[in-house]
């Protein structure tokens, strides 16, 4: 039976909430030892439950991709190399105009999206991320690919052509709305209502979109 992205997201958010309910104030430990934090980005992760939840989801996906029974030595070597490169990029967030916390969150979201895009095993298990899901938008030649990251502060990663943005979820009267004005070019928007969506690339007009069937 087909389940819409909205339904899948609602179910996943409920699972995340259940997992952390009944424990009072949350204090999440990331996948690495905070006593050995070596960058301002790692320090930010160790001081934020929201960032720690992103780190834990990324660690889950990386483990799934790296321990797949059919992974080749060459593919594993490439995965490890890209992960080292990603860590280097994340640790350079101290240079970002966005500030370390927002830059770090975006770097985690982009990497989560990349692993889900490239590795089937990263999409196989249940966790705090979903997708990618394709959307067709009127007036846009490229398909918009959406990965939903339903950690403690939900966001969506959108990719179309050579462009990509991360948008945090914001309050909406209906549907699921993601918006940000942190990207160069101007405000960006992705607003889902059932299988329909509105998408505005940074500084661009809104386009009407619809989720493609995915089998």
Furnish the topology, listing elements before pairings.
Blueprint: H1 5-20, H2 40-46, H3 49-66, H4 73-91, H5 100-118, E1 129-137, E2 144-149, E3 155-160, E4 163-170, E5 176-180, E6 188-193, E7 196-200, E8 207-211
Antiparallel strand pairs: 1-2, 1-8, 2-3, 3-4, 4-5, 5-6, 6-7, 7-8
Helix pairs in contact: 3-5, 4-5
Description:
The longest helix is centred in the middle third of the chain and has 19 residues, at 73-91. The protein is an alpha+beta fold and 215 residues long. It has two domains: 5-123, no CATH class; 129-211, C-type lysozyme inhibitor (Lipocalin). It has an eight-stranded antiparallel β-barrel. A hairpin with a 5-residue loop joins strand 2 and strand 3 (155-160). It is globular, with a radius of gyration of 17 Å. Helix 3 runs parallel beside helix 5. The protein has five helices and eight strands, in the order αααααββββββββ.
